[in-house]
Write a structure and sequence with these properties.
This is Peptidase M15A C-terminal domain-containing protein. InterPro entries: Zn_M74/Hedgehog-like. It comes from Vibrio algicola. The protein is α+β, with helices and mostly antiparallel strands. The chain has a single domain (3-154), classed as Muramoyl-pentapeptide Carboxypeptidase, domain 2, CATH 3.30.1380. 34% of the residues lie in helices and 23% in strands. It has helices at residues 3-24, 36-45, 88-98, 145-154, and strands at 27-31, 75-81, 103-106, 113-117, 124-130, 136-143.
Length: 155
């Protein structure tokens, strides 16, 4: 892991994970940092609904060609909070209204949320929806104050 990735993960921890844990309780990270080697493994053995060039899980890591895996600055993780596994909308509401985040992907009340911390602080919410076959569709997105409105509609 390079120094930029390490710093990005520290910022994610201090700016998002620690405040969530202090307010709600223990966090369970379901998907975290993805090195190039791990990304290769995942693509080989469990390909699916991934967007490593956008999702910030690789932070500042480089691919085999020496270019950044993700074009966005910052770092990401997907989390549950113990005691809130059926109420993740409450965690999402807290992040949107109280914390300096970059992106939050919301998959439903009983699914982990994807949160990112980066210098943009775009406060962008993306509601991911599943079709009847379980495939994730793009869904709707909103920034800033419109994000909480979209989340409340999506609950």
């Amino acid at each position: 892991m390079d120094d930029e990735s390490s710093l990005a993960l520290q910022q994610l921890s201090y700016q998002l994970l620690k405040p969530i844990e202090e307010s709600f309780g223990e966090i369970d990270i379901t998907y975290g940092f993805t090195s190039f080697e791990l990304l290769k493994y995942i693509k080989k053995y469990s390909p699916g609904d991934m967007a490593p060039e956008l999702d910030q899980h690789a932070a500042f890591e480089l691919n085999s060609r020496g270019t950044r895996i993700c074009k966005r600055d910052g770092a990401a993780c997907d989390i549950y909070v113990e005691g809130y596994k059926e109420k993740m909308h409450l965690i999402a509401q807290y992040v949107i209204t109280e914390l300096p985040f970059d992106r939050l992907y919301y998959y439903g009340k009983d699914r982990p949320i994807h949160i990112t911390f980066g210098p943009d602080h775009s406060r962008y919410l993306h509601v991911k929806e599943r079709d009847r076959y379980g495939k994730r569709n793009l869904g709707k997105g909103a920034k800033g104050d419109k994000a909480i409105e979209l989340l409340n509609i999506s609950i």
